[in-house]
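Q: what does this look like with adenosine-5'-triphosphate bound?
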Amino acid sequence: MLHIRNLHVSYGSIHAVRDVSLTVEEGEVVTLIGSNGAGKTTTVNAICGALPAKGSIEYGGKPILGLPTHRIVEAGIAMVAEGRRIFPKLTVEQNLRMGAFSRRASRSELARDMEYVYGLFPRLAERKRQMGGTMSGGEQQMLAIGRALMAKPKLLILDEPSMGLAPIVVRDIFDTIRTIRGQGLTTLLIEQNAAMALSVADRGYVLEHGEIVHHDTAERLKSQDIVKKAYLGGS
Ligand code: ATP
């Protein structure tokens, strides 16, 4: 579904992403893990058309590299950005409606999709009229994911959903990712929290200094010594 080949991204003289190749097939959850500054967000921004890049990115068999972000969203890719950029001055419900902005959905479809999101995140249902900006970090992350789901994406990209959240909240968010996965939504999950990411993913790629240094099934990555030592806090 998503085929990235030989991707390079530079910021002036900083070569942040080097020759990255990565695929996500329909129905898969694929994770891209790596530590701070490895180039994860840069890769995501290149996929979403937010940064100039070299190489090739195909989605559904068509080249998308260089397309404006709105065309990429219309093609069925929804991204939850790092730092969850929800609209702080809009209510939960208004934020969710904004997620469906690029679709031509009827009132009843919107209502049904909203109920689906509220079913995934009951906490949001309890807070429909609360301003986004007054929600806790975990609730804002739920809202950001809910808003992306309102676009009815074929491919969901999550950029570090665990960032800055307490372990118990991270577990909640990952339980929901597991539920979404069970419903067959293709997902690219960018994470620093390798243990959580590999627990929900089918396959994973490890990015270091802008380069993919390992890729394998999540099961095998979890048991590789080098991944265990560097990312899973053990030997
Ligand atoms: P983090 O988890 O901290 O966000 P990351 O893996 O997402 O890390 P990137 O944000 O993609 O990493 O950064 C990759 C490299 O590119 C880093 O060395 C970073 O300093 C550099 N970089 C990122 N954005 C810019 C920018 N706008 N201008 C210059 N250098 C940048």
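Residues 1 and 60 are 5 Å apart (CA to CA). Residues 11, 14, 16, 34, 36-42, 82, 192 surround adenosine-5'-triphosphate (CB under 6 Å).
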